[in-house]
Amino acid sequence: MIVAKKKPIEEIIDEIKGYQKILIVGCNECVTVCESGGKKEVAVLASALRMYFLNQGKDVKIDEVTLERQCDHEYLEEIRKMIDQFDAVLSLACGVGVQFLAEKYTRTPIYPGVDTSFMGVTQERGIWTERCQGCGQCILARTAGICPVSRCAKRIFNGPCGGSTKGKCEISREIDCAWQLIIDRLKELGRLDDYEQIQPIKDWSTERAGGPRKVVREDVR
Ligand code: SF4
Ligand code: SF4
After folding, report:
1. Is 8 exposed, middle or buried (0-12, 13-18, 19+ CB in 10 A)?
2. pTM of structure
3. Which atom of ligand 1 is nearest the CA belonging to 207?
């Protein structure tokens, strides 16, 4: 899933303080799972903002709605009839949803309510960790299912580097060395011979550093 965290309310207030009618739009997918932009977070934020503006003596209308997804035309259409009633929209979707909303409703200012962080997993309640950077050419088959692109601080493909100590990354002792994890997993799978194979140079042109990417699948068009 895409992991995001709530923006500080001060930052949100700064974004929207000039408007009188604001619609907060949540998303039922990833941001619900990581507890930053689902229906519950929309309700909590809406209450906090109403309270803030009331205390400021300002008459600001805050409404709320949560869509199934904000990265899909079909669901964004659900607010077409209501969006013109608002001066601004605060989207609690990930950056993808915020942009798609802004592309669809060009006359309404759209503001982000969360900081989108990475693609990852729920490690445990309240802790999410990164697993994939969408590099466009998955090499997990060669690395025992552990991604050196997202989990090695130096993104090296023939590790570990000289800084790995007692299984921890030199960047932070709280982070496991991805290459130690890869070696341990290969050992467990009886595939340590694979570790002797030098990994070929990766084609980074498929990665996002090569510019915005597009996936076209003729079979589902
Ligand atoms: S190798 Fe690339 S596609 Fe595969 S998990 Fe890592 S970043 Fe994601
Ligand atoms: S210590 Fe391990 S995870 Fe950290 S940069 Fe070096 S090889 Fe990568």
Report:
1. exposed
2. 0.91
3. 2
Pocket of ligand 2, candidates 156, 165, 176: which has the most ligand atoms within 8 Å of its Cβ, to mutate? 156
Distance 155 CA to ligand 2 centre (A): 8
Which amino acid type is present at position 73? H
Q: Distance (Å, rounded) from C-alpha 192 to C-alpha 176?
A: 19
Asked whether 158 lines ligand 2 (CB < 6 A), one says no
Whole-number Å distance, alpha carbon 152 to ligand 1 midpoint, is 12
> What's the pLDDT at 208?
78
Query: Mean pLDDT throughout 193-219?
Result: 85
pLDDT in tens, 98-148: 999 999 999 999 999 999 999 999 999 999 999 999 999 999 999 999 999
Ligand 1 atom 4, closest CA: 138
Q: If you take atom 3 of ligand 1, which residue's CA is the nearest one? A: 138
Strands (E) in 113-170, as ranges, are 114-124, 127-132, 168-169
Query: Taking residues 35-41, what's their average pLDDT?
Result: 98
Q: Could you identify the atom of ligand 1 that is nearest to the CA of residue 119?
A: 8
Half-sphere exposure of 85 (CA within 13 A, CB side): 10
List domains and CATH numbers for the chain.
2-118 (3.40.50.2300), 136-209 (no CATH)
Residues 180-209: what's their mean pLDDT? 91
